[in-house]
Amino acid sequence: MSKYKQDILEYLMMHKGNYVSGQKLAEQFNVSRTAIWKAIEVLKTQGYSVESIKNKGYRITSVPDHWDSDLLSYVLGDSIFQKQFVYEEVTSTQTIAHELLMEFDEPLLVLSEIQTVGRGRFKRPWASKRDTGLWMSLVLHPNISYQQIATFNLFISIAIAEAIKNVTQLEPKIKWPNDVYINDKKVCGFLTEINGDSDGVHTIICGIGININHKLEDFDETIRDTATSFKLESKTDTDRYIFIKALIDSIEHYYEAFLTQPFKEIKEIYKGYSMIWDRTLRYTEGNKQIYGKAIDLKDDGVLVVLDDTGERHQFISADIEV
Ligand code: BT5
Fold first, then answer.
1. From the annotation, which residues make up the binding site for biotin?
2. CATH class of 5-62
3. Predicted pLDDT at 107
4. Which residue of 95, 112, 123, 126 sits with most ligand 1 atoms within 8 Å of its CB, as the best mutation to test the pocket?
5. In the prediction, which pLDDT does 2 show?
6. Global pTM?
7. At 208, is the secondary structure helix, strand, or coil?
8. Which of 112, 208, 241, 318 minimizes the number of CB atoms within 10 Å of its CB?
């Protein structure tokens, strides 16, 4: 049933706006009209609105707003992420991705409606409310040196910021090394984990969390003043399928750039999105904490910060307090 459903769904989506007769669908997929009717009923139970008019046929009028694996596969088309895993609920898509990568050699996309133990860097919690955001992990197999991985986050953060800007028309800003903000509030955090051996990095597991349709009360008190969502900033709902399509396209583009170009080629684009220049901010890395201004981002991704006394500091990853 699932295969029919996916085929029928794809066909109806391709002809969205038009009616397609049951007879036509039956011929197309070489099944009975009853089988078509049953598949349409399944689509309806999964949140699709399908109009059916006598002598005209079927027409999709709206799609579900929850993650549906068939619709996702249709929307992402011939993306490099052909292996997609969609869950209702997981502890963390990052944990699932680590398990799945043992079984598959190709790029993987792991998505869940809710995470019960979503995590940020250094095991900090990541709030992942149901039906509101995008909680996703991507598995990639780059075959690169340990040195090269240092700039991966820089490419990915541009990919995320650009997708947000294109879909929402908002002004996302990158907070080095792994956050995206809108109007000084955090809308996205991502983390990059790697597997490698003595030859270099062979697997990247990149977990991305983006707040999309959250209302203020969807954030608990601990982050209500510091977090934001597309909805809170634009006062309108964003179609998560349109956004994920834009995001994956953008990530594929910048991942290709990461593999083929040095960071300096896109450094000016990065700086244009960056929110940390010309501001005195608090930088914390391990036990080290300073107040200073970022003055340079080197080609290898190292951030150079000048403190109040004029001393230079270099960071490869730090928490920055805005
Ligand atoms: C991050 O960590 O920002 C990386 C978050 C990565 C989340 C994704 S979701 C899919 C995948 N599966 C996972 O389990 N994780 C990844 P960090 O820089 O450590 O920031 C964590 C801090 O952000 C927390 O301590 C909170 O202060 C804040 N925070 C937590 N949830 C948030 C949210 N939904 N929106 C904004 N801020 C949040």
1. 115, 119-121, 186
2. mainly alpha
3. 98
4. 126
5. 57
6. 0.92
7. strand
8. 241
